[in-house]
Predict the 3D structure of the following.
Amino acid sequence: MKSPEHLFVYGTLREGAGHPMHATLDAGARRVGAARVRGRLYRLDGYPGLVLDPAADWVHGELYRLHDAGVLDPLDRYEGAHPTDPEPLEFRRIQASVVDFKGEARAAWIYVYEWAVDEHARIGSGDYLRPDS
């Protein structure tokens, strides 16, 4: 299977989150626009975690087209999803289908949360940057 040419981000890597790692993403990818995926978003310790669920509400984020696949290595390290990180990984980068701003499904890389969410509050809006909307 061909690797996705896109990356979906929903938390601290988003353009408006103000995190310095966004500059790393921006250097290796071009923002396509808003996108969404079915799942549940949880508030962790200063960042969100996404659990995919096709029966759940929408989680909102941004879609980026990768022009340098090498950008995934530092992003994997940042997310704790690098192959050299110890198991069990908190996040894992997987291929998933997201819906872009035109309503079209696209294959994209996405970081999903792997640990238990029982102790974490859900972000009901599905939008990390607008948690109460």
